Amino acid sequence: MSRPANPVTVPLADYSPQHFLLAVVDGVATVTLNRPERKNPLTFESYRELTDFFRACAFDDAVKSIVVTGAGGNFSSGGDVFEIIGPLVKMDTKGLTAFTRMTGDLVKAMRACPQPIVAAVEGICAGAGAIIAMASDMRLVASGAKVAFLFNKVGLAGCDMGACAILPRIIGQSRASELLYTGRFMTAEEGERWGFFSRIVTPEQVLPQAQLLAKQVAEGPTFGNTMTKRMLAMEWAMSVEEAIEAEAVAQALCMTTADFERAYEAFANKVKPIFRGD
Q1: In the structure, what pLDDT confidence band is assigned to residue 5 with cuts at 50, 70 and 90?
Q2: Rounded to the nearest 10 degrees, what angle do helices 163-171 and 128-135 cross at?
Q3: 186 forms bridges with which residues in the sheet?
């Protein structure tokens, strides 16, 4: 399980990943899982390269938001049965723990990534694919899409890559428990009703709409958006009183930015503010 041959050491607009497609336009980086003939499964290498990418995002000010999608009408079928699950049954406990920590690192990298992430979900979104959608900050779904946390179906626990921590916070403890205990598919309609998805759109529109949402975010105050993401994560473990104090400090920091002053000047002149991220 070697590292990718080309770790991210260049601006993301110039980066050519080996295991997914990447395009950066108007501050929005679109990541496309690109093995459509097999519904975009993940491999040892793609896990690591995606993790490296999300970590690199913290060092590229030109990227303001991120869209994650899949090629060929599906999001991702999860870990590749032959390239991941097959080798896992031959590993010892040390090797297996290294693998599960490595997959969890992808979620850690997504949550630590300062840019908001939008998942554009279409078709099958299962296993680790469902986790990537879950770990995103916002999720749009195409009609007909299905999401399943399939770990139970392959003899494992539902506690994979942070699912038992994050999923209940999105859809509630009982609904999350049902999905994690049964491994059944959640329909797009259920996902929207339960709050997993923001809205349902047509398959043709799910990626354009996700990119539009990401562009709207990218046009906002960069430091403010980063602080919002950080507070949304940190406040899970805070009391209301602690959260109010933390938000007071965070908002005071935002008030020191040039973008805050620009917003005031734009309001005073009755024009739309143009944020520059400083």
Answers
A1: very low
A2: 60
A3: 147
